[in-house]
Design brief:
CATH class: Mainly Alpha
Strand order of the largest sheet: 1-2
Number of helices: 6
Distance between the termini: 27 Å
Helix content: over 70%
Number of domains: 1
Radius of gyration: 16 Å
């Protein structure tokens, strides 16, 4: 029992670090913020950890990257939006929504989670900076989500061909 808890904590901490690095190291500047590779790490976290632990890993990792990068104002919104992304994707994968399973459920879950994340961020953009900034942030948010899904899908396909496949949740196999 104790080893199982330690394993879960360690796996979650590993994904916190992967999300942090994906956000902090791989930034692509845009007029309204930046795109990063953190989302693809969150999508992979959902596949391996499940929605709840991936929500924790994604929220903490991305929020820490915001703080370290000087975007402290975004730390709490980032935590909430990234956690929501992982929870929605995890729910869709675990409950086989619309009768989907495997890669179809993965894709629908990723898109739905990305939409929820984008809506959350747009609300924060509106509250913090107004309607014009919110509208300007829409395309970059959707592009970041699309990039995250595409890269995670490719990484997951590659990882399925390795011994790491055994760590993927049953819902995606």
């Amino acid at each position: 029992m104790r080893n199982e808890k330690i394993t879960k904590i360690t796996e979650t901490a590993l994904f916190i670090a992967l999300v942090f690095l994906g956000v902090f190291l791989f930034k692509f500047p845009l007029p309204f913020g930046y795109m990063h590779l953190g989302d693809c790490m969150i999508f992979l976290a959902v596949l391996i950890l499940g929605g709840k632990r991936a929500a924790l890993a994604g929220g903490i990792g991305a929020a820490l990257a915001d703080v370290v990068s000087g975007y402290t104002i975004w730390a709490l919104p980032t935590f909430a939006c990234k956690a929501a992304l992982a929870l929605v994707m995890g729910l869709i994968l675990s409950h086989k929504v619309f009768g989907l399973s495997g890669k179809a459920a993965w894709l629908v879950g990723g898109i739905a989670g990305g939409i929820v994340q984008s809506i959350g961020y747009l609300i924060f953009w509106f509250v913090l900076f107004g309607k014009a900034a919110m509208i300007a942030a829409l395309v970059p948010l959707l592009a970041q989500t699309g990039l995250g899904i595409a890269i995670a899908f490719l990484l997951a396909a590659a990882l399925e061909k390795t011994a790491l496949r055994k760590y993927f949740r049953e819902a995606v196999q």
